[in-house]
């Protein structure tokens, strides 16, 4: 498949690390190293809008796009820094073809739609600004597999959430997703019960239709993903073919969630050479990245230019999220009422 067959859309929004461009530089660097591998593939960056609020009168919420006037100034500075880096073709910003700055807040789904509307290729790679590739993700080969097999509508990068996915779904929902599908010669695709917003390849025209039907400000995963899950839970795997969502089973974590809302900038700003080498080797223990937000939300993978925000104590975290009882089943023991993180049998 030619490079011209696929285009990436990377959505960014206001986060505490701005005006630094370190976070998005790491993500672009990982795309260049583990996905594009020196190809001429293009990336469209969409910078979502925001609502500036008086922090003393209204609570700040990055997820809802509500930021203080001070944060808004930092975000505007980030936008200018981003434009300058792209114009100068400073690595890894040299893979960015264009940047779109939205005036008003549209949320991830709306911002993604604004970017996908500009895509001229039949396939699209969807990327969030804090989803870092940590191993090879063959996006072009995934697109080739979808080109040959119309039943494949989505191929996601492997995360800790989707490792040993078949066993997890049996334990959590008592649903057997069945055997993997072999595509494009050697790609092993595992059926997904839920469409995730994590890094994935899909058809541009199908994505446009899905995003156009989203409520304003919504995340696709929150609406489309959970609607799909509810349908399959009710009707079984007979409902799966109309969704056609798969994850590429790499048998290891491919994409890593940096959690942009929990990271801050670490001065000084990275140099072009540092951002070019923005993907350090990652040590794993039992297949897990130590300190990954995908396995523990209070620490962050050490990266140049990025530091973890002030840690929340486990006790405080329990008070914050403990008000709602965990309704699912543990991936470790299969018992309902607690997550794998708090499993007493670990």
Please provide a brief summary of the model.
It contains nine helices and 15 strands.
The stretches of 5 or more residues where confidence is low (pLDDT under 50) are 278-300, 311-323
- The name of the CATH architecture of the largest domain is Alpha-Beta Complex
Radius of gyration: 20 Å
Summarize the amount of helix as a percent range.
Answer: 25-40%
What is the molecular shape? globular
Largest sheet: 9 strands, mixed
**Number of helical segments with 4 or more residues:** 9
Distance between the termini: 45 Å
Chain-averaged pLDDT: 83
Briefly note the CATH topology name of the largest domain: Spore Coat Polysaccharide Biosynthesis Protein SpsA, Chain A
Order of helices and strands: EHEEEHEHEEHEHEEEHHEEEHEH
Oligomerization status of the protein chains? single chain
């Amino acid at each position: 498949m030619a490079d011209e067959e696929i285009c990436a859309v990377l959505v960014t929004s206001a986060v505490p690390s701005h005006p630094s461009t370190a976070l998005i530089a790491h993500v672009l660097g990982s795309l260049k190293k583990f996905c594009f591998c020196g190809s001429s593939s293009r990336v469209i960056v969409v910078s979502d809008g925001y609502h500036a609020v008086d922090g003393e009168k209204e609570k700040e919420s990055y997820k809802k796009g509500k930021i203080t006037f001070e944060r808004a100034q930092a975000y505007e500075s980030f936008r200018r820094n981003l434009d300058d880096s792209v114009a100068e073709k400073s690595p890894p910003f040299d893979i960015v073809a264009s940047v779109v700055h939205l005036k008003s807040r549209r949320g991830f789904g709306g911002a993604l739609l604004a970017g996908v509307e500009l895509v001229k290729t039949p396939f699209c790679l969807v990327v969030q600004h804090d989803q870092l590739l940590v191993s090879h993700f063959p996006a072009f080969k995934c697109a080739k597999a979808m080109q040959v097999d119309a039943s494949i509508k989505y191929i996601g990068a492997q995360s800790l959430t989707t490792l040993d996915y078949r066993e997890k779904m049996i334990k959590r929902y008592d649903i057997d997703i069945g055997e993997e599908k072999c595509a494009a010669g050697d790609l092993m695709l595992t059926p997904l019960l839920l469409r995730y917003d994590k890094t994935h390849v899909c058809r541009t025209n199908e994505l446009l239709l899905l995003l156009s039907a989203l409520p304003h400000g919504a995340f696709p995963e929150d609406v489309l993903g959970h609607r799909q899950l509810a349908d399959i839970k009710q009707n079984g795997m007979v409902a799966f073919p109309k969704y056609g969502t798969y994850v590429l089973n790499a048998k290891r974590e491919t994409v890593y969630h940096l959690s942009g809302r929990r990271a801050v900038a670490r001065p000084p700003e990275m140099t072009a050479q540092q951002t070019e080498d923005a993907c350090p080797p990652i040590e794993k223990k039992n297949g897990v990245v130590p300190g990954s937000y995908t396995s523990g939300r209070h620490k962050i993978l050490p990266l140049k230019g990025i530091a973890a925000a002030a840690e929340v104590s486990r006790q405080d975290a329990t008070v914050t999220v403990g008000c709602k009882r965990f309704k699912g089943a543990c991936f470790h023991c299969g018992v309902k009422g607690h997550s794998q993180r708090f499993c007493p049998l670990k």
